[in-house]
Task: inverse folding
């Protein structure tokens, strides 16, 4: 079959998870998912695995047998590629007489995929928060006509249910990559100014820059969360006002004197007391929200981001971040995150720029004729 050891493990884990899932009470929800005598509907899930992760199957298509369900087919989106040789894959299962049953099957298969990928430490993007879009109805009709009249559907990133009797083909737009290009003379002028300014960064700032760079290589939720992690590293440990510190110190002294060994036992009481003291000591410093507002008011006063003052924009972003990271039921939508991610990335970059933020590279750009390019293909960059 062309399966490597990793590929065999993946298939076994997928089948094992589904068998276990069907034995649980939660499987009662999908207990009616059985192969119909007159199958009509199919479910299809297109997903992407991280670029540096591979499923070791050398063929472009393989069937995964499952107990009590139609076989699931794992294939490469591009059938000319092997499963191991691509990031874009499809899971498909046919055999349901109602749209609802096919939808339930898709949900079950996606959960199976999530568990399997997590167990194999691979990950998968199932399109839950990916950009939407596709061909219009007229566009699909045009493609269908050009292809000889076959049924054509949009190649959706994520799950879809369709009438399998039409034996449709799937049309999609290839990945679109946007680039940010800085004019060479302006980059050189900025670099020269950075050298003159002697920009020594702290270790926290260097780590923040690493996270900021990782964010720029990501998109959507990952971009926003990584940028926020970079921002938090730039915050100073700002103490609270003296009266508040005095109150916190009283709480700390009270916790130290409290003896809970009678109720919890000596060992447990000491652990709980140490945890409580650690939390109380954190109260001596301002919160992330408050420290962030102090930093932005000092460093970026007078600028605007997404039409808001830095402190106002940060307050908005902080609320979205909490809802996204701390598991609030009111999760922010993808559009809500995307709506602030770009401007927040700019804000973090402005903080990391330090004194260069006030430098205008356009007015100090080197004339093109003064830029000397050195091409030495025989030598490695260095």
Result:
């Amino acid at each position: 079959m062309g399966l490597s050891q990793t590929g065999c493990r993946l298939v076994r884990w997928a089948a094992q998870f589904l068998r276990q899932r069907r034995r649980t009470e939660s499987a009662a929800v999908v207990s009616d998912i059985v192969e119909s005598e007159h199958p009509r509907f199919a479910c299809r899930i297109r997903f992407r695995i991280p670029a540096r992760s591979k499923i070791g199957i050398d063929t472009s298509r393989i069937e995964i047998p499952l107990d009590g369900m139609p076989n699931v087919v794992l294939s490469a989106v591009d059938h000319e590629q092997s499963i191991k040789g691509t990031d874009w894959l499809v899971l498909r299962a046919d055999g349901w007489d109602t749209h609802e049953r096919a939808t339930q099957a898709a949900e079950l298969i996606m959960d199976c995929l999530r568990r399997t990928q997590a167990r194999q430490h691979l990950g998968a993007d199932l399109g839950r928060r990916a950009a939407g879009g596709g061909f219009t109805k007229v566009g699909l009709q045009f493609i269908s006509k050009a292809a000889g009249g076959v049924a054509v559907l949009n190649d959706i990133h994520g799950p879809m249910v369709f009438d399998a009797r039409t034996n449709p083909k799937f049309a999609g737009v290839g990945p679109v990559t946007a680039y940010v290009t800085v004019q060479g003379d302006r980059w050189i002028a900025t670099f020269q100014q950075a050298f003159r300014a002697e920009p020594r960064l702290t270790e926290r700032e260097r780590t923040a820059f690493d996270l900021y760079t990782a964010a720029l290589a990501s998109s959507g939720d990952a971009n926003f969360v990584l940028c926020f992690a970079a921002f938090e590293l730039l915050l100073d440990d700002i103490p609270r006002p003296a009266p508040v510190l005095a109150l916190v110190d009283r709480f700390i002294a009270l916790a130290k004197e409290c003896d809970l060994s009678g109720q919890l036992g000596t060992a447990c009481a000491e652990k709980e007391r140490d945890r409580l003291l650690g939390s109380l000591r954190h109260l001596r410093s301002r919160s992330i929200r408050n420290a962030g507002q102090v930093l932005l008011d000092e460093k970026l006063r007078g600028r605007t981001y997404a039409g808001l003052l830095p402190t106002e924009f940060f307050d908005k972003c902080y609320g979205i971040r909490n809802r996204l990271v701390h598991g609030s039921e009111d999760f922010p939508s993808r559009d809500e995150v995307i709506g602030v991610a770009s401007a927040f990335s700019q804000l973090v970059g402005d903080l990391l720029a330090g004194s260069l933020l006030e430098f205008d590279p356009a007015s100090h750009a080197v004339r093109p004729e003064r830029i000397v390019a050195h091409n030495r293909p025989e030598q490695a960059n260095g």
Notes: Residues 21-36, 368-382 have pLDDT under 50 and may be disordered. The CA atoms of residues 217 and 299 lie 26 Å apart. Strands lie at 41-48, 61-64, 72-76, 88-96, 152-154, 158-163, 169-171.
